[in-house]
Design brief:
Helix content is about 30%, strand content about 40%. By secondary structure, the chain is α+β, with helices and mostly antiparallel strands. It has a single domain, classed as Cyclic Phosphodiesterase, Chain: A (Alpha-Beta Complex), CATH 3.90.1140.10.
């Protein structure tokens, strides 16, 4: 059987996804060369696992479920835009998270701890919670995009609030039209 491309994620409510699409529409006016994330694909990646043998999925799910037990719901505020990397040519345009970010990071650490016990390598960089809005493909009008981001951030508006109640094990199937995500299982926090 073929391996599954998996990741742990927080899926977003429909109203938040709609607000992120509105934000994308504002930014498209700049006409920068950005591949925008589709509305149905908005999520917060907690931990990317990569290609996994299907027989390992039940053990992964149960180990993470044990490790995150008692974390409880996490209140997050979605606000401010940014890019990765900060220096040089930016590649990722993202929306930041505020609120109980420490609790979210702790949940990530629990997930990572559970996966290490199953032989997964720890991440080489610190967890940086964010929602990807788009991927910048070329320098065309990137400076104008950065100016628009600064302008929007100066308005200091909150895009929305999310109460995270579940952690989802997701499968990502890569297609020519882009990734297709499906939930393999959910853990109530």
């Amino acid at each position: 059987m073929e391996n599954l491309r998996l990741f742990w994620a927080v899926n977003l409510p429909v109203d938040i996804k709609a607000k992120l699409v509105d934000l994308q529409r504002q930014l498209t006016k700049v006409r920068a060369d950005v591949k925008w994330v589709e509305e149905e694909n908005f999520h917060l990646t907690v931990k990317f696992l990569g290609n996994v043998e299907p027989v390992k999925v039940p053990a992964i799910f149960e180990q993470v479920k044990k490790e995150v037990a008692g974390v409880g719901a996490i209140s997050l505020e979605i606000q401010n835009l940014g890019v990765f990397p900060q220096q040089g040519m930016p590649r990722v345009l993202w929306v930041g998270l505020q609120g109980e970010k420490d609790k979210l990071i702790a949940m990530h650490n629990h997930v990572q701890k559970a996966l290490i016990t199953l032989g997964f390598a720890p991440e080489g960089k610190p967890f940086s919670p964010h929602l990807t809005l788009g991927r910048i493909r070329s320098p065309r009008k990137t400076q104008k995009l950065l100016e628009e981001i600064t302008c929007l951030n100066n308005q200091n508006r909150v895009i929305g609030n999310v109460l995270v109640k579940t952690l989802d094990l997701m499968e990502s199937e890569l297609t020519r039209q882009g990734p297709v995500y499906s939930i393999l299982g959910s853990i109530k926090l």
